[in-house]
Amino acid sequence: MRIGLIGLAAGALALAACSAEGEKVASAGTPATANKNPYPSTYSPYPGEPTALIGATIFDGEGQLTENGTLLFANGDVVAVGGPDLAIPAGYTRIDGTGKFVTPGIIDAHSHLGDYASPGVEANSDGNEATAPTTPEVWAEHSVWPQDPGFSRALANGGVTSLQILPGSANLMGGRSATLKNVPSRTVQGMKFPGAPYGFKMACGENPKRVYGSRGQMPSTRMGNFAVDRANWIEAQDYAAGDHSSRDLGLETLEGVLDGEILVHNHCYRADEMALVIDMAKEFGYKVTAFHHAVESYKIADLLRENDICSAVWADWYGFKMEAYDAIPENAALLAKEGACVIIHSDDQDGIQRLNQAAAKAQAAGRRIGIEIPDAEVIRWLTYNPARSMGIEDQTGSLKPGKMADIVLWNGDPLSVYSRPEKVWIDGALLYDALDPKRRPVSDFELGQPGEGDVK
Amino acid sequence: MIARRLLTAISAACVTFSLPVTAAAQDLVITNARLVIGDGSAPIDQGTVVIHNGRISAAGAGAAAPQGYPVLDAEGRWVTPGLVASLTDLGLWDVGAVDGSNDVSAGEAAFSAALDIAPAINPASEHIAISRAGGVTRASVAPSASSGLFAGQGALIDLGQDPDAVMQPRAFQYVELGEWGANLAGGSRAAAYTLLRTLLTEAEKGDAARQFEGNGTHISRADIVALAPVAAGEQPLYVHVERAADIRSVLALKSEFPALDLVLVGAAEGWMVAPDIAAADVPVIALALSDLPVSFEQLAATQSNIGRMVDAGVQVALGLYAGMNQPRWAGEQAGNLVALEKMPGASGLSWDEAFAAISSVPAAIAGMDGKMGVLKPGAFGDVVIWDGDPLELGSVPVKVFVDGVDEPLDNHQTRLRDRYRSLEDGGLPPAHDW
């Protein structure tokens, strides 16, 4: 039972009680040992060949730029990045990158592909378990439809090689995220990023209070948002200190957050609310890894830097809801100027195809007010920084020897509107090639239908 | 349905121009421009633009600078006509999700086709100011259908700061004939077409004595009266459909109602029937970058849609800048279509075609050929000087003229930017900095 909710709202209680029934999967009295990885990744890299990209401009994802560079990868891993004098071992396929650019695979820390799949019909709407204001027990991976055509667009047009699928923001606690490699697969397990930690979606602000307030239940206000959150954390602390004699899916997740095993990704627009969430995290001893949609981060960039919290932002979305009315295009640049962590995210099946373009716009907005951010730093916003927020920065997100060969070869400067991915490798396997129609993934849904296999 | 899912500009700081700020149209010569006429012709270096009495009086490489006009040296910058954004919701909302501020749709209204959006348009909207600072100087504004098959009558506006935004009220009628239209008409496309035919026939006869009720449809006498100019071909009928089959059905209406002045809106699968659209001489206003089967009426969506239609001879404007799709993104979306030209198998637009698709082409579709979206003698004095290639990411205007008036480019966003540019303790709270 979610006891912490009882004293707060009768409405919440009813729903909490309902959901609690299904959560008890171990018999009372027996110490329950939860398998922390019950739906393990079955992904293993697809075949690739040792490859040398020669003569391109290489951004390594951690702020380094190499002109006329050479990138070597083999057996799924980056082997070396160097200049024109880097020796190319025998047996490597050579690809001329002259006039082209190389980046690490693009990473989106905020996607709903698969859980709000195309076609966007009600039957495919699996992103918000909007039946109770807190549903820490749900896992996004159980909603992901691997046949969402959006994955292939993100790959081909956006160069996206890894992404985090988050539950929606109807709920204060929306559930666990799924971190995926952007590879076509029959199953979600075949996409799961090996060894990635879970993320946990939280939301503050307008959405939870609107969704539940409109039903006459808690929360209907921002203070209600916090009260419900705090009650859940109190319960989680009690559970963590207890004997674990019975399992509770939701509390297992919250305990994982308190233990630092599960990373918090908190949808939050307004600066003042982010500041309150930071204190709530301190009150209960957890850490917010990133604020998402953080359109007002520029107002508290110092606070975010001091607390080592990333801001996952759009370039210039504006005004669509009250808490987005103070969004400004200089948000990312002002954060960077203060030394705070910037992530460019999409939250959108179209935007994920152009994260590089969003980053370029955010960079230009800074330049106009005298904030010069080098291109190589801007590339970090959509590679290493999102990888770090997802806890996979030791495996991907930059082109360091030994890391996954998740690589995009762009036909021009990725910070220009006139450039597109030409080739995309995931773990060294060529999964998209603009020059080869058969290296263009076509989902089951698209087979035999108008537009099958077309350029998109 | 039209995307209901729901920059800007900065300028003064890095510009050395020193024109006197005035709210009045002024005669002006802009020299040394990388000049884009907007009609699909190639940019001209060392171009000159002359504005006289709020209109373009000359533009080109050899345009003579009249004696006594103030001269603005563009220093080689891109100089273009103001962008024309087709099918926006500019001036109809402040915050999309705040209903009280949002006049886009009227689901509870007693009228549909009779709705005239013009008096709802707020020239002081932040979105107009922000779009102006993004180089957009003219737009069509359309309501969204929710009380019936017809959305109502859209307007043409300019984005100048003055309160006189509406150039032409009741510029077009808007109807939904795809999935959303089926829904509005009672549940099927058959119902939508039956309703449309019935109403057009009634309107042709001038018989406004009847009204129709039932299954979510509500047609008042005023709606039938409002459709008379549509039936007579005096007011264009904008038809939103996406599916190839639906496009064919719309084109077939011309045989039954030959007077109809049709414009296709959406047309995500237009490339599949492009020769038919071209043969019918019906223009298209399309989203630039749809490439997902977001519904069963857009299974064949591709970013090559517009390029393929243009290649087939269809007149296509980029548009549908409503909800989350901001008018100031027109340039970069056009730039994306240029990028497709380098992709094997894809069809995009040349740079010159792409710019025309956000300037002269939407102007022509709006019935303003030669009046807006081009720098030609007699056109409105809408001129934008850019800090870079106007189709490139992050390029913004450094100067925007509307009807020859040097327009302000500041807005809520620029004021917030300036307030929070530095977080250093200035003694008093930020609220005292304004």
From TrEMBL, chain A:
Domain Amidohydrolase-related positions: 101-416
PANTHER family, alphabetized: ALPHA-D-RIBOSE 1-METHYLPHOSPHONATE 5-TRIPHOSPHATE DIPHOSPHATASE
Pfam families: Amidohydro_1 (PF01979)
Protein name, UniProt field: Amidohydrolase family protein
Source species: Altericroceibacterium endophyticum
InterPro entries registered for this protein in UniProt: Amidohydro-rel, Metal-dep_hydrolase_composite, Metal_Hydrolase, Metallo-dep_Hydrolase
Record's signal peptide: 1-19
Keywords noted in UniProt: Hydrolase, Signal
GO molecular function: hydrolase activity, acting on carbon-nitrogen (but not peptide) bonds
UniProtKB/TrEMBL annotation, chain B:
Signal sequence residues: 1-23
Every Amidohydrolase-related domain range: 260-392
A Pfam family hit: Amidohydro_1
Highest taxon listed in the record's lineage: Bacteria
Keywords: Hydrolase, Signal
Any one Gene Ontology molecular-function term assigned to this protein's record: hydrolase activity, acting on carbon-nitrogen (but not peptide) bonds
Keyword Hydrolase: yes
Protein name: Amidohydrolase family protein
